[in-house]
Amino acid sequence: MNEARGYCTNCGRALDADAQFCSGCGQTVGGAGTESSQAEATATPHASAASAQPAQSSGSGSPNVALWVILGVVVIGLVVLLVGGLVLGWFVLRGTSTTQVTRQDTQATVPLEPTEPAISTTTDSSPRTDSSPTTATSPPQAAPKAVVVETPTTVVVPNVIGMSSVDAEEQLETTGGFRVIYNQARYSDQYSRNNIISQHPKGGAIAQSGDVVYIVKSRGPAPAPPARQQPTRRQTVTGSAFNGSIAPYTSTRQIKDWEMQQCTNWVLTLIRNEIYARHGRPFQNQRIRAYFNNQSWYQPNRNFSESWLSAIEKQNAARIAAYQKRRYGKSATQPGAEDLP
Fold it and tell me: What is the CATH number of the domain that holds 206?
């Protein structure tokens, strides 16, 4: 049996005297390390003997390096195979989906972009080989369909003033495809009803085809204003020459401005006081009292109250007073020169 030379500095295993490598971990046995181990063993024989036993037990339980190397290689190989299989499967699936899409595109493109067969001008009877793919088999290389962009053209706007609306629309449509929009019709003494009296843009202007032309139709001549009643002469009342009510309507409706314009200042005073006289008001003014005393319908009442007047009578009395003040400055208290016969 070989005598122990020392212990491995890597794993602590006992080494044979002539060992070049450690039988446990494969560590090269060095001279320095061996001599040091022998010196330690010589110096402390008991310590060496004591430490040798744990080292042996430790060496006997450590994994084999070669086994670990083999296991590592096997694991790496399995990982490589797994990754390679995944990559190969991805390429296979991608190639299948691309083929399906290409077939679908080909089916959709072929009817829309038919290709004409190539015409050969050679007399060679041998079949022609063309390496370039056709449109039917290679949709991505098909020539793109040309998009035609129509540029608007400029047109001279025709003059349609004086035409009927039907003829004007036809003229504008025929000349430049213009669209017609009607503005509000107006009265015109020059053009008949439904004839065009104005347009925008005007005739002779330059516009683009398809633009809008605004036109206005005639409503015919404007109707004549209603005739206004004009008095032949101003209404006057003198003394007891007028027997009866001057303005009986003041108790039923509002008096009009044109009705007041026909009366003198003195007549307006009588009309305004007539409203009160119908309810028996006594008058302080001598001329006003004398006038109403001569009326058969007047009956003075000392208990007169303005509350007896209706709402329309109060409004008419106020309107007449305001008109007299605005036109004459104040109400007349006696007949004027224009009231004399």
Answer: 3.30.10.20
Q: Residues 235, 241, 245, 250: what is their CA dihedral angle, to the nearest 10 degrees? A: 30
Please tell me whether residues 88 and 50 are part of one structural domain.
no
Last residue of a domain, one of 166, 200, 217: 217
Largest CA distance in the chain: 182
Nearest to 291, CA basis, from 335, 258, 231, 261: 335
Range of the domain at 213: 154-217
pTM score: 0.33
- For the chain, the domain total comes to 4
Amino acid at 135: T
> Residue 233: left (phi > 0), alpha (psi -120 to 50), or beta?
beta
Bridge partners (DSSP) listed for residue 196: 217
Residue 300 lies in a domain: yes
Q: Does the residue 261 lie in any domain? A: yes
Structure tokens at 289: 């009292």
Task: Tell me the C-alpha distance between 266 and 68, whole Å.
Answer: 141
> 182 lies in a domain?
yes
Report yes or no on 119 lying in a domain: no
Amino acid at 187: Y
209 with 276, same domain: the answer is: no
Residue by residue, pLDDT tens for the chain (341 residues) are 444 557 788 888 887 777 778 878 887 876 444 444 443 444 444 444 434 444 444 444 455 788 889 999 999 999 999 998 898 888 888 876 555 544 555 444 444 445 454 444 444 444 454 444 444 455 566 666 666 656 668 999 999 999 999 999 999 999 889 999 999 899 998 899 999 999 999 989 999 988 999 999 999 998 887 766 554 444 555 444 445 688 999 999 999 999 999 999 999 999 999 999 999 999 999 999 999 999 989 999 999 999 999 999 999 999 999 999 999 999 988 888 887 76
Residues 210 and 194 in one domain: yes
